[in-house]
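Work Package 3 (structural annotation) set out to generate three-dimensional models for the target panel prioritized at the project kickoff. During this period the team completed the workflow that converts sequence records into discrete structure tokens, so that structures can be stored uniformly alongside our sequence database. As a representative example, we reproduce one entry of 184 residues exactly as it appears in the project archive.
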Amino acid sequence: MFIQTETTPNPATLKFLPGETVLGSGTADFTEAGTAAASPLARRIFAVPGVTGVFLGSDFVTVTKADSAVWDHLKPSVLGAIMEHYQSGAPAIEGVAQSAHNDQAGPDAGIVEQIKELLDTRVRPAVAQDGGDITFHGFDRGVVYLHMQGACAGCPSSTLTLKMGIENLLRHYIPEVTEVRPVG
């Protein structure tokens, strides 16, 4: 098995491409080892000292390191953990992956569906190239709240991406949108 790696705009995060499907559908974001109980793959990667986050995409794994860790020392161990996982035959996630977006009913349901559609078709494929994901969290009085995951979480350029890219896109297509804000 040959696993490719790619840098991301976030220097604390590397994207690993195992050349096989990671998740058949959806994504999974684990911001600490304690949240990875349902993922044999994430648990194995978190066992590597210095790993602080694991994000699973359709065909990639994004790993975030602690500030004190150095990629030259960490990368071989992470590659080994991913290779061991695929050799074990265990699934990346046990059970069903959750929907990426939050649901929101009510009078703004039509606007919310338009927002999710634009995120799914225009935004998420682009940020997946950088090893991350951006999902819908909520919409209230013109403000869209988005959740940044994987390489997007903590990325130095994420504010610029949100304001200049996503906010402008949503405001162009959906006049009811006035602002985009990240949620933690």
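The chain has a mean pLDDT of 88.
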